[in-house]
Amino acid sequence: MAWTALVAALFPQGHAITEQDDLLSGVAQVDGGTVAVIGTTRHASIGVELALAQAQAVLRTVREAPGRPIVLLVDTQGQRLRHRDEMLGIQRYMAHLGKCLELARQRGHRIVALVYDQALSGGFVSSGLMADACYALPDATIRVMALPAMARITKMPEAVLAELAHSNPVFAPGPENYLRMGGLEEIWRGDLATALAKALAEAQPADHRAALGQARGGRACAQPVLTAVMEAGRAAQNERARTVRPRRY
């Protein structure tokens, strides 16, 4: 879906969103209130400039409109694969974007993301997956790594990975598999404006994706491991509190 048609469906009450160098930014009206809109288009390849531009838009919202909800529109082919970006430390720029979104969350901004076209690798991790809740359209393309690239990294035959993808959502692309793993809150069909208003009203900063993945049968081990680590940490902290003696001066 073209971003112009998307925002018309999402924001029937009006918007002032512009495109510049694959960056979408502006404001829109949702359910009688104003939201900030930040996103990418044309299967954007996230280089240092685009990562910084998104981060600047987030910080501008935090500074100029405290508490204003943020809607992220995701269409990216991932990080830009150029020697220049790698030498400049593209991972640091993308991490900076993620930190800016976390700062906004800590300052009380609700953050909702929508994958409306492509969402690949680091470009998705540092944007859509940093939201309080991430949603997708049915025809969206979502994957962290293509099977041929995964085969090269894992040294496993591509045919084996393709077979695994039939039964294990971790290996398979597509919004339905990310829904099963808890990475997506929901796949939107029908009235997008109503779905967005509902998502913003229900957005919570707590991360419950591991529990969702377990409940939906897509990630069996993430939540049990998370729970075990937290319980071990609490036990260790309690043990230190019992054994540490106050200093005598």
Automatic annotation (TrEMBL):
What single Pfam family name could you report for this chain, choosing any that match?
A: MdcE
What molecular function does GO assign, one term? lyase activity
What is the enzyme's class at the highest EC level?
lyase
Gene Ontology biological process terms, A to Z: carbohydrate metabolic process
Kindly state which keywords UniProt assigns to this record, in alphabetical order.
Lyase
Q: Which domain of life is it from?
A: Bacteria
The EC designation for this entry is: 4.1.1.88
User: Gene3D superfamilies in the record, alphabetically?
Assistant: 2-enoyl-CoA Hydratase, Chain A, domain 1
InterPro entries, from UniProt? ClpP/crotonase-like_dom_sf, Malonate_gamma
NCBIfam families linked: malonate_gamma
* Protein name, as recorded: Biotin-independent malonate decarboxylase subunit gamma
Source organism (scientific name): Rugamonas apoptosis
